Amino acid sequence: MLLAWKSARVITYAGYILGFPNDTEASILRDIDVIKRELPVDLLEFFYLTPLPGSEDHLKLFRVSTPLDPDLNKYDLNHVCMPHPRMTKEEWERAYKLAWQRYYTFEHMETVLRRVASAGANASNALFLMTWFKGSIDFENIHPLEGGFLRLKYRHDRRPGKPVAPMWGFYPRYYFEMAIKLARWCALYLRLRRIYLRIRCDPRRTEYMDLAMTSITDDEVTREIFQTKAAQAYLGQQRRLADARQGAVA
Hints:
The protein folds into 2 domains: 2-215, no CATH class; 226-250. The chain is 52% helix and 5% strand. It contains 8 helices and 2 strands; from the N terminus they run αβαβαααααα. A two-stranded parallel ribbon has the order 1-2. The radius of gyration is 22 Å and the shape is flat.
C-alpha cells in the first residue's frame, strides 16, 4: 500500500502509538529501527496510548480504580495519563522523547528525501515538513501538530492560581527566547536544505533504491518486521483466511 502511494508521488504519513501493554523502551526503539529500514514511510508521528474520557477504555480503567491523571488538559495524546504495566512514567516519557530523536536523525531524513525524490514526489515539501516536525520536538518540546515556527505567548494567559508575570521580566525573556529559537529553526532548515540540494542535483536521484522501496512478495516473510509475535499471529490469520477462501471457491 505504501509503495502504491509512492508510485502516485504522495508523501506518506503514519501515526505510531507508544505504550501498548507489551511495549518497553527497548522494544519501541527496536521497532522504530525496523520501520526506518523496511517501510517507505516519510513522516512518522508519535502519540501516547491515552484512555480518552468518554471512551470505553477510560470507563474500564475507571471501574477497576486505575489511577488516572485528574487533569483533563493532559488527555491530548501527548502526555502520560495512566500507569503502564512494564514502564514507569519516567521510562514511558523517555521512550516518547527518544522515539522522535531515533526517527528524525539527519541520516534518516536524508534517506527519506532520497526516497521522495526517487518517486518524483515534492521533495521540497518533505524538507519543510521534516524541519517542522524535528524543530517542534527539539526546540519547543511540543508535538508538531500543536506547534509552528513562531510561538506566541501572552503575559496574561496563565492557568488559574498562577501569578501574572511582570512586564519587565516577561517581555525581555520572551523576545530573547524567540530570537534563539528562530536562529535554531533557520540553522536546522539550512542544514536540511543543503542535503536536499545535493539530492536534487544528483542526476541519478531517480535510481535510488533500498529495502523499504522494494516490493514484498506474498511468500516473503523473512524481513524483520514480520518476526514479532503479533506479526506472526497476523500472518497466520491471513493464511487461514486465504486457505478458507480457496476452499470455498473449490
